[in-house]
Structure formats: C-alpha cells, structure tokens
Design brief:
- By secondary structure, the chain is α/β, with parallel strands linked by helices.
- It has two domains: about 130 residues, Aspartate Aminotransferase, domain 1; about 260 residues, Type I PLP-dependent aspartate aminotransferase-like (Major domain) (Aspartate Aminotransferase, domain 2).
- The mean pLDDT is about 95.
C-alpha cells in the first residue's frame, strides 16, 4: 500500500476539474507537471506588484525585480548543490540548455577525430545537438548498447568511453523506459580521459535530490515546467572553469560589457549567456516551485514516485495482451506500454474519455522506439500528486479500451 503524500493534490487548482464527467487522473507529468497555487501566486505577485526589467534601471520596481531574479538563481544553486550562483544560467528549458553546451562548449573544444558518447534512449533534445555538433566538427557519435531490459550496463559504458571521448551526454532518467542511469560512474570514466559529463536532468531533478558534484557532472540541464514551475524557464548549470572559457551564443542586452563600432566584450558569467530580457516571472515561479518541493521533501517525492512507477509496472504486467518496457527495478515514475492490437493514440483517447491523461507517441525518442521495435507507445508518468488509486484508474481504463475495441 502506497500512502499518498497528504493533501498534496489540494495544492493544485487543476484537480478541481472534471474531464468528461470524471475526476482528473493526470499521468503525463513527464511531459509537463501541474502547478501548485504557491507558484501561480508568486508569478501573479510579480506582475501585479513589482513588474520591471532586471539589471537595468535603478528605480524601486527594477531593484525589487532584480533582487527577486537573482534570489531565484541562488535558490536554484542551493537546490542542486552548486558552489556559486554564478554557475546557474537561466534558459528556456532543457532543450535550449543542451543546445547551448553543444554550440558554445562543443564548437570550441570538440575536434575532428573526437567522439561523443550517447545512449539510444536519449530524448531528441540530448541527441540532435550532438549529431549536429559531430557534423560541424568532424567528430563521431558512439552509442552505448543497452541491456535487453533497457538499462545502461557499466561494462558497455567502459567499452564506449576511451581517450578520444570528449563528451558523454546521458539522461539521468529515461523519459520512456524509467531507467535510472549510472551518471557518477560514467563521469568518473570520462574524466579519466579529460572529457566532460553532460547530464540531461529533465526527468530526474524534479523527482530526486540532486547534487551536481556527487553526480560528477560538468553540465546539468533541466526544465522548470516538469517540477511544478512555469513553462519557458530552464537551467543550465556548468562548472565555472568551462563557463569562463565558453563564448556566448545569443548577443545583445545585458550580456555586454563594452561595445564600440568594431568590437565587443562580454559580461561575467552567468549574464554573458543571458542576452535580452530574461523570463523574470518564470525564474520567480521556478524558485517558488523549488521551495514547495523542498517543503515536501525530495527524498519523500523520490520514494513516492519510484514506488508508483514500480507498482504500475507490476500491475500492467498482470493485464493480458499488455507489453511493458524498461527495467523492473529500479524503475522511476514513468512506465511505457502497449496493448496488443490497439494503437497507442486510440488507447489514449479512450483513457481521456475516462478522465485519465496519458501520453501516446514516440515521446521524442525515435531511436529508442527503433531499438524497442515499435512505432510508438503509451506512457503513464507519476508525480507527487498521484496515488495508488490513479494506477487502479489506469488499469480500469485499459480494460475499458480492450472491451471497446473487441466490440
């Protein structure tokens, strides 16, 4: 029996809705999470009470906005164990963060003949930037072969990482398989050869305590909208030694130190990477989301979502004609599955008619679909506001879909 996190769902206004006459069961948090009232209130307060641009004017509103924006950076830094808030760069999300690393670090430090190590389970956001970097710089991509259950074997990592490896880029948690990858071990391997460890934390930072130094990361990317924060705000954390040497990729606004007609110099980190007016309300909302998660406890959230993921895996395996993907244990709070003779999109529509929201498709992971030998899957993903009752609703919806299509 998995005890729900007490009264958490009451913090989220959206759960007052009914969908097609049913109470909402939201099982799509791997795509985006719902937002608690404290986050909505923090952003509303900014716009109503001290809306102004940051790092520019010296009037009261601007000073209050700048203070809140930089306090948000400090909140993020403390949350992930960064040594200084100057290592925290605000972006639009994980995708932009990873592209920034590929463009700025990659173009400067990857050379012809180097290799970039990935896995077939990577989200397109942690695959295509490296594909394009390899093309630009004459490097090669090396994919670590997965175990039959979709886990990432250490032996395969050891075989893939060698003296030519400049970058290892891996997700901490697969957004499809629920695999939990050995990032610290991969980081130790690549650091032996002077390479860097890039971590896609989109599916892990919202769910488990994260310390960038314990992970051995050189760069960590994650998104606010998957961790109870707003859309359009994300984070790139990087080690100061790399960020200091990297060039910006977006020019203008407050990323400038000096400009004349012929040349320009850049502001110090992190501002040299934040050209233009940033998403101020988004940063404030993200900080409010982090404080909310801390108050509940990341260890509690981690145990809760992992327990739901593993229980859902077991429950789905008991349903005839259902195929479940990924390792049995440990399994994060995301489970991909298919029902024989029912297309995932059709399945998701029947679910929706029963008030159950899941995702269906390739989940921005087409190479992984190819590895699985399927075109698409359905996916249920769990977060702090879900309960064991939601798994029962999921199973009931599958049984309803089977009855519907058998008719």
């Amino acid at each position: 029996m998995i005890e729900p996190l007490v009264n958490v769902s009451e913090d989220f206004p959206i759960f007052q809705r009914e969908i097609h006459g049913h109470s909402l069961v939201y099982l799509d948090s791997a795509a985006t999470s719902q937002k608690p009232k404290v986050v909505l209130d923090a952003m509303d307060r900014f716009y109503r009470q001290y809306n102004a641009n940051v790092l520019r004017s010296v009037h009261t509103l601007a000073e209050e906005a700048t203070e809140a924006y930089e306090e948000a950076r400090q909140t993020v830094a403390s949350f992930i164990g960064a040594q200084t808030p100057h290592e925290v760069i605000f972006t639009r999300g994980t995708t932009e963060s990873l592209n920034l690393v590929a463009r700025s670090f990659g173009d400067a430090f990857v050379n012809p003949g180097d290799n970039i190590v990935l896995s077939p389970m990577e989200h397109h956001s942690n695959l295509i930037p490296w594909q394009q970097l390899a093309k630009r710089r004459g490097a090669t991509l090396h994919y670590v072969e997965l175990a039959p259950d979709g886990s990432l074997p250490l032996d395969a990592l050891r075989e893939a990482i060698n003296p030519k490896t400049r970058i290892v880029a891996l997700s901490r948690v697969s957004n499809v398989l629920g695999s939990i990858n050995p990032i610290a071990e991969a980081a130790d391997l690549v650091h032996r050869y002077g390479g860097v460890m890039v971590v896609d934390g989109a599916q892990s930072v919202p769910h488990e305590p994260t310390d960038v130094h314990q992970l051995g990361a050189d760069f960590l990317a994650f998104s606010g909208h998957k961790m109870c924060g707003p859309t359009g705000i994300g984070v790139l954390w990087g080690r100061s030694r790399w960020l200091e040497m990297m060039e910006p990729v977006i020019y203008g606004g407050e990323m400038i130190s000096y400009v004349d007609r012929e040349m320009a110099t850049w502001a110090d980190i992190p501002h040299k990477f934040e050209g233009g007016t940033p998403n101020i309300a988004g940063a404030i909302g993200l900080a409010a989301a982090i404080r909310y998660l801390i108050d509940i406890g990341l260890e509690r959230i981690h145990r809760h979502t992992q327990a739901l993921g593993e229980l859902a895996y077991e429950a789905l395996q008991q349903v005839p004609d259902v195929s479940v993907y990924g390792p049995r244990h440990p399994h994060a709070g995301v489970v991909a599955f298919n029902v024989e003779r029912i297309h995932p999109h059709d399945l998701a529509q029947v679910f929706d008619a029963n008030g159950v929201a899941v995702r269906a498709g390739h989940h921005c992971a087409q190479p992984l679909m190819q590895w699985l030998g399927v075109g698409s899957t359905a996916r249920a993903s769990f977060y702090l506001y879900n309960s064991e009752q939601d798994i029962r609703r999921l199973i009931d919806a599958i049984l309803e879909a089977k009855r519907f299509f058998q008719r």
